[in-house]
Automatic annotation (TrEMBL):
GO terms for cellular component: plasma membrane. It comes from the Bacteria. Keywords: Cell membrane, Membrane, Protein transport, Transmembrane, Transmembrane helix, Transport. The keyword Transmembrane applies. InterPro entries: ExbB/TolQ_transport (IPR050790), MotA_ExbB_proton_chnl (IPR002898). The chain crosses the membrane at residues 33-52, 132-159, 179-200. This is MotA/TolQ/ExbB proton channel domain-containing protein. Residues 92-212 form the MotA/TolQ/ExbB proton channel domain. It holds the Pfam family MotA_ExbB. It is a multi-pass membrane protein. It is found in: Cell membrane; Membrane. GO terms for biological process: protein import.
Length: 236
């Protein structure tokens, strides 16, 4: 409902009595906006949920744990592969999961280790970006739905005029005011979705950069102990 409050404050009604306009409830305005507002509000709810959920998820990852990394590297240098893999899995950290994938392939060549880490890295990035496509769709579809609702409203206005045979300016202005609610609401939802999409993408880029730095440290440790033959081998 707060979407209507913002729209009414930003654009007062044209050709209507201000007292009557302010006397209308949000529910009556919703009804006048038409059924197109239903999918727009569903998209608004989806966008807000995805933004809040993804932001909370990324916020937990956007914290470098130097002590945990130091402990994991120590386990790798000591050749305790099983303990290192178990510890990495318990951290629920994308970088640690990539390192664990390399440790599980420690009996193969370094090329096999690097390929396993690359595959896991792509999987972790896909996990970070999960849901962003829905935000992108919402940012594109919501404004188009709003314009579609307005077009349907204009068609309805001229259809009614053709039936009555009378051209009444107040009727046209009132009808347009009601149908423009669709356009304004759709644009507002699109702005929210696009802003959230851009902010989350920036946050993900930061997490991926930290992940690359951490994975590089782990890969150097694996290479070092692989050359020295310290690894005990991973037993699944």
């Amino acid at each position: 409902m707060w979407l209507f409050s913002m729209l009414l404050q930003a654009a007062p009604a044209v050709g209507t009595d201000p007292v009557a306009a302010h006397g209308e409830s949000y529910f009556s305005l919703m009804a006048k906006g038409g059924v197109i507002l239903i999918p727009i509000f569903l998209l608004a709810g989806l966008a807000i949920f995805l933004i809040a959920d993804k932001w909370h998820f990324l916020r937990k990852l956007d914290k470098s744990d130097n002590r945990a990394l130091a402990y994991l590297l120590r386990l790798i240098y000591e050749g305790d592969t099983d303990k290192a893999v178990k510890f990495a899995g318990e951290r629920n950290n994308p970088a640690f999961n990539v390192i664990a994938a390399g440790l599980k392939d420690d009996n193969g060549s370094m090329q096999d280790v690097e390929e396993s880490m690359q595959v896991e890295s792509r999987m972790q990035i896909a996990r970070l970006e999960k849901g962003l496509n829905y935000l992108a769709i919402t940012a594109s579809v919501a404004p188009m739905l709003g314009f579609l609702g307005t077009i349907f409203g204009v068609i309805r206005i001229f259809y009614d005029i053709s039936l009555s045979g009378q051209l009444d300016i107040s009727t046209i202005s009132n009808g347009l005011y009601e149908k423009m609610i669709c356009s304004g609401t759709g644009l507002l939802v699109g702005i929210i979705a696009y802003s959230g999409y851009s902010l989350l993408n920036g946050r993900i880029d930061k997490v991926v950069l930290q992940m690359d730095v951490t994975v590089n440290e782990g890969l150097k440790a694996i290479r070092s102990v692989s050359r020295s033959g310290v690894f005990n081998g991973y037993s699944s």
